[in-house]
Write a structure and sequence with these properties.
Helix content is 17%, strand content 39%. It is of the alpha+beta class.
Amino acid sequence: MKTTLVLLAIAAAAAARPQGPQDAYITRYDNDNTGFGGYSFNVETSDGFRHEQTGELRSPGTDDEALVMRGSYSYVGPDGVTYTVIYVADENGFQPEGEHLPASAGVKKLGIPAAAQASLIGGGLG
């Protein structure tokens, strides 16, 4: 009887120990992916991480076909603050927004100067 109580006390102490980031586990997972027309998912973990995303195929079967994803994720930083990123990812690249992100962090299409384009296709720089 005494041995059983000691083993139960050890098991309770092990279960009650503080959990570090390496001990995070999934607390919620929703997924809707029929394979036609788009998808969505939502996942949350015990350490405060959350990610939700939807996706759809734009202009299927054409030269302009592109997968468009919209979503957000958030996490608790080492400073205890929850950071959130809202994003779109499409034919223009990954475009994040968040209060903690500098304005230059967003991906924009970069124009290639005409002289550089000419050089790349063999037209010289002049």
